[in-house]
Specification:
two-stranded antiparallel sheet, about 110 residues, globular, alpha+beta
Length: about 110
C-alpha cells in the first residue's frame, strides 16, 4: 500500500469506503491505461534518466488516475500456503490487454 500517492488515500482504498478513489499514483502490479493517453502524453517508464520511482514518474504524466476498490485480482494458495497470482486468470488478462491495444491501434492509429 505504500505505493499510493497521496498516502492519505490509503485508508479510503484499503477499507473500500468508496468504489472509485482518485490518486496521483498507485502501483500494485496492475494498471489499465488508454493507449491514446500514453501516446498523447509521451509517457514512458525510464529508470535510467529519472531519480524517483518509475511508476510515480510514469503516472505523473496523467491528470486523472482512479483506483477501483472493487477490483481484486484472483489469487490462489500455493502448496506452501503463500498467495500467488492465478496463472490462468493472468493469461486471460493478457489476452484482454492485447485486444484493448489492438482496438486502440485500429481506432487511433500508430503515432510516430
Amino acid at each position: 500500500m505504500r505505493a499510493i500517492r497521496p498516502m492519505y488515500k490509503i485508508p479510503q482504498i484499503g477499507f473500500k469506503f468508496t468504489r472509485y478513489v482518485q490518486v496521483k499514483s498507485a502501483f500494485s502490479g496492475f494498471g489499465i491505461y488508454r493507449y491514446s493517453s500514453i501516446i498523447d502524453k509521451s509517457a514512458r517508464y525510464d529508470s535510467k534518466h529519472i531519480k524517483e520511482i518509475e511508476h510515480i514518474y510514469f503516472n505523473s504524466h496523467f491528470n486523472k488516475l482512479i483506483v477501483d476498490t472493487r477490483f481484486n485480482p484472483l489469487y490462489k494458495l500455493s502448496k506452501k500456503g503463500k498467495k500467488e497470482f492465478n496463472k490462468d486468470f493472468s493469461f486471460s488478462i493478457y489476452i484482454l490487454l492485447i485486444i484493448i491495444i489492438i482496438i486502440s491501434l485500429l481506432t487511433y492509429g500508430v503515432h510516430k
